[in-house]
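Pipeline run #58 for the internal structure catalog. This entry was flagged by the ingest filter as a single-chain record with no existing model, so it goes straight to prediction. Upstream metadata was stripped on purpose; only the residue string is passed forward. Reviewer on rotation: M.T. Logging verbosity set to normal.
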Amino acid sequence: MSKTKNRLSALLDQVRQAETVIIVDRGTPVARIDALRPARPRARQALR
């Protein structure tokens, strides 16, 4: 985990390049970091 803390900026750069990062603690996967998809604009409802 300390390696993850020390490399967080580099890991986020990887995520920005559309890569998925898996965080492993003592050989066990514990988290995944994925890029967020852009939010879709909400459709406006017509006023009556």
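catalog note: The longest strand covers residues 28-33.
catalog note: Residues 36 and 42 are 17 Å apart (CA to CA).
status: ready for reviewer M.T.
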